[in-house]
Design goal:
It is a single chain. This protein is α+β, with helices and mostly antiparallel strands. The protein has 2 domains: 2-177, Lipocalin (Beta Barrel), CATH 2.40.128; 179-218, no CATH class. It has helices at residues 2-29, 37-44, and strands at 46-55, 58-60, 65-72, 75-82, 89-101, 104-118, 121-125, 134-141, 144-149, 155-158, 162-166, 171-176, 180-182, 215-217. Strand 6 (104-118) and strand 7 (121-125) form a beta hairpin. Helix 1 packs across helix 2 (37-44). The protein starts with a helix and ends with a strand.
Length: 218
């Protein structure tokens, strides 16, 4: 238990530091047309929580969909759950490496697993979404970092609040984990509606521990 608590404290401190760096970097970007690799690195690194999934004219939110994504030091790790259809539920997990260069962002998958559950059983695929690097042109527009694929409709957007990814057909929106934590699980999470300020009245379920919780600023 002591080890688990220390690990959670370290993760919380790390997320706070990344959030501070992100806000500072975007404040700098608002006054610049171009950014250094260091500024882009500070602007995209962090821990993200899946908040919305736009597809087929619908906007899906937790608990129908859920996910986490971490970008740090050239590494990307993510997991996404899609429970929108009870008869066809999927979980996608993967890890990748990314490269930041002036005006350019690239990443490639190193591992990927898709688990599909249907009434007929469970299937697993470990096929990579693609082989090799996918390259994006990097730009800064209206205090946002934009990565646009050089050979396709894919696009990432990063700002102080979070990030989004779209491929021309669907879009996933992530919130950046900052300084809100749930007292139940001591993890970063987000309310499903507006809170009453720094502390809400405990009406909202924590999306991680699925219990009624009080969200507090640390």
């Amino acid at each position: 238990m002591k080890l688990s608590h220390n690990w959670q404290v370290k993760m919380h401190a790390t997320s706070q530091l990344l959030a501070v760096l992100a806000f500072a970097s975007f404040s700098t970007l608002s006054q610049a047309e171009e950014a250094s690799v260091e500024a882009m690195k500070a602007g995209i690194e962090g821990v993200y929580v899946l908040q919305e999934w736009h597809r087929n004219g619908e906007i899906l939110r937790p608990p129908l969909i859920d996910g986490r994504s971490v970008l740090l030091n050239g590494r990307l790790v993510f997991i996404v759950h899609d429970r929108a259809q009870e008869s066809n539920q999927t979980t996608l997990a993967g890890y990748a490496t990314y490269i930041l260069e002036p005006g350019k962002f690239s990443y490639s998958f190193e591992g990927s697993t898709v688990v599909t559950q249907t009434p007929g059983g469970t299937s697993v695929s470990e096929k990579l979404p693609w082989e090799g690097l996918r390259t994006f042109a990097a730009s800064i527009e209206n205090n946002e970092i934009h990565f646009r694929a050089t050979n396709g409709p894919q696009e990432f957007r990063f700002n102080a609040d979070g990030t989004s990814y779209s491929d021309g057909k669907q879009m996933r929106v992530y919130r950046r984990v900052t300084d809100k934590s749930c007292r139940q699980c001591r993890s970063g999470c987000y309310p499903t509606r507006e809170t009453d300020g720094p502390k809400c009245r405990g009406r909202l379920p924590c999306t991680l521990c699925a219990q009624a919780a009080v969200y507090v600023r640390r």
